[in-house]
Amino acid sequence: MPTGDIIPTRHEVERQLERILADVVVASHPQPARLLHFIVRQTLEGGEITEQIIRDFVFPSPPYKEDSNIARITMKTVRSLLADYYTDEGKDDPVIIALPESPEGKRIKFQAGQAYTPEFRYNPRSDIAKQFAVAHHLLRGGPAQIEQGLWQLNPLFNDNPDHPEVALSTAEAVGAQLLLGVYPKDIQKSMIANGLEWIDRIAPKVPGYWRVPMVRALLQYCDGSLDEAGKEFDKALALDRQSTISRGWYTQYLFAIGRQEEGLRHVRLTAGDSVDNAQIQALHGVYLCKAGRFEEAQRALAQSLTLDRNCWAAHWGSALLNVSTGDQERAMEHVKRFQELVEPEEYQNIIRMLELKHSDS
Description:
By secondary structure, the protein is mostly helical. The protein folds into three domains: 10-122; 126-258, Serine Threonine Protein Phosphatase 5, Tetratricopeptide repeat, CATH 1.25.40.10; 263-361, Tetratricopeptide repeat domain (Serine Threonine Protein Phosphatase 5, Tetratricopeptide repeat, Alpha Horseshoe), CATH 1.25.40.10. It is 67% helix and 2% strand. It has 19 helices and two strands. The chain has helices at residues 10-22, 24-27, 30-44, 51-57, 70-87, 127-139, 143-159, 164-179, 185-202, 211-222, 226-239, 241-247, 249-256, 260-273, 278-290, 294-307, 312-324, 328-341, 344-354, and strands at residues 95-98, 119-122. A two-stranded antiparallel ribbon has the order 1-2. α1 (10-22) runs antiparallel to α3 (30-44), α15 packs antiparallel against α16 (294-307) and α17 (312-324) packs antiparallel against α18 (328-341). It is elongated and about 90 Å long.
């Protein structure tokens, strides 16, 4: 699951701790279970964890000496219980609670208390992660695939509205659909408002995550709030410039505000890093066409069609290019090919965007 630098929310960790402590095997080891509960809660509260603190709060009686190894011995049992739990009963749980491990082949001496501070991450083997992986793949495709990705996300979002990646991906997919003209005008405002509400709800749970301002900027851009979108894009760029640029929405924004040369630099770099990706090469051609660089656009689109003659974006871009250069006959050839590659409703939406006039004859 492409979670980047985000971690599960506090509520998700607390629910996972409850699942682990309710396990029959874990519950049969009361002292390690008590220690696990303590270190997870202490970490969530931002408290310090040392052997002395563990002895004082987890094992107050009988009093242990300062050189007692009770914490280390019990922590070893906790590690073993967690390993067994995630191998068996908890293998598909949504969240992993783990203790730091030295890299294989290296012996690292942890700072005081670091070895006892648990780490929290999403489990790539969980059902939600597997379903999300399918949705994530679809969302990177064409119009029909984005719609399928939303269908895949909807039940996930209904069951897990506070899951950061699910909420952000759903809002981003809505933004993509808005740009494609899928939603009727009378519901566009409400779709944007809903997306912004989802983002505002999960934002405090993932501070410093670049996707939060990036997706917010996308929705504000869809709403025509260019100044606000620019401020959010700046925040996203400050947090993770490469990821923000590679997503593509910032490039569209730059073209919208008249900064075409800067936008072209970004899309050129992305295309250079993805020479075997037909869709990215096609989008490079579309942006070159919009900038009036028709010969360069022709080369980029031809490269895309060489990689994949059924690339919908390449036929879309080629239609746009030929209309721009006055070759209506060639434009109609690509329009017809484009029509064969997408759903009828999507075809009508995108044709309207391109402002191409054609007949079915």
